[in-house]
Amino acid sequence: MIISPRLKIITVDDSALIAERLKLILTETVNVEFLGNAHNIATALYLVKELKPNVVILDINLAEEMPNANGIFLLITLREKYPALKIIMLSNHSGPKYRSACFSHGADYFLDKSLEMDKIQETLKMIV
After folding, report:
1. Phi, psi (rounded to 5 degrees) for 71
2. Fold of the domain built from segment(s) 1-92
């Protein structure tokens, strides 16, 4: 019998409602360990460094802590520091401009928050 590895996941979303929904989805997913949600960039960087997840689910639109700091800024930072980390962008900003920017900066997957939340579990199965 082959046992799939557990994915350790952190979410990054400043909406408490979305963060709670993601937590519910992830805690119901087999072989997933939900490590927590970061509401901002500083907390996300701390959690990734300390908890060493395999996957980060990241929103583009985050509360701005510094000029031009958003989910794409965090994507770039994470990709530089943690090249093996799998990054799933999950955003309402799903137009071609945003998708292209995310993929060009190293996102592994991109899901539309309003239309594709139900594809998170399927996406995680592809990562395993």
Report:
1. -60, -30
2. Rossmann fold (3.40.50)
